[in-house]
TrEMBL record:
PANTHER family referenced in this protein's UniProt entry, alphabetically: DEHYDROGENASES, SHORT CHAIN, ESTRADIOL 17-BETA-DEHYDROGENASE 8-RELATED
InterPro entries: NAD(P)-bd_dom_sf, SDR_fam
Entry protein name: Glucose 1-dehydrogenase
Gene3D superfamilies: NAD(P)-binding Rossmann-like Domain
Entry keyword set: Oxidoreductase
SUPFAM superfamilies membership: NAD(P)-binding Rossmann-fold domains (SSF51735)
Family of this protein: Belongs to the short-chain dehydrogenases/reductases (SDR) family.
Organism: Actinomycetospora aurantiaca
Gene Ontology molecular function, alphabetical: glucose 1-dehydrogenase [NAD(P)+] activity
One Pfam short name: adh_short_C2
Amino acid sequence: MNPTYDFTGQTAFVTGASSGMGIATARAFAQAGAAVTLADVNPDALDAAEKELRDAGHRVLAVRCDVADEDQVAAAVTATVDAFGSLDLAYNNAGIQSPTTDAADEPASVFDRVNAINLRGIWASMKHELGVMRRQGSGAVVNCSSLGGLVGLPGRAAYHASKHGVIGLTRSAAVEYAPRGVRINAICPGTIETPMVTQMLGSGDLDRATAEANQPINRLGTAEEMAQAVLWLCSPGAAFVVGVALPVDGGYTAI
């Protein structure tokens, strides 16, 4: 049984919100009483996610946003505050994977694109979220890193570089903003049943049996399990948790 949370009267902002861990977390925030902004680059999936939450009676705003474009991120944050009056909770989830590549062969264009979304996108999101939270004197931010932010694997240099960078951003901003009433942490998901992982399995870039065997719990994680980790980090139950890169990986990094 998952714990229950009450975020009534608060506003949550979620990037990469139309699928996978993003929609699972947005749904969980909404079910806990928060108004939710869904920010995503995919207009069709964004419309479907908005309809789902609105039809369930939740307060929701959908904003098309490419986190690699800081101006779009700033506009999405502004729209959130205009619509709901505050920004109290943020889950910076938007990210992409890249095919496995020998480090000596990786194109600069791939490195730049992965880092533009996975690292610069979180930097831009956090920057504009913190601008609001600094004025409020309160807030909680969770950034999505990865087990790839804690370890290295062959063929994934660009992706792991971006996810290691997220942890550095998180820790530095966390110690800066903790005295101002804003808590910042990161989660480091293992291999999770999401559309991105499904695509990797379909392309042969990831083998399910190997992925399951690499996690001592002997299964892939679920998006809902990641959402519960995010909500806990945003909740009063984690009031003394600051600057943590929390593995949520079925034991992968415990080996």
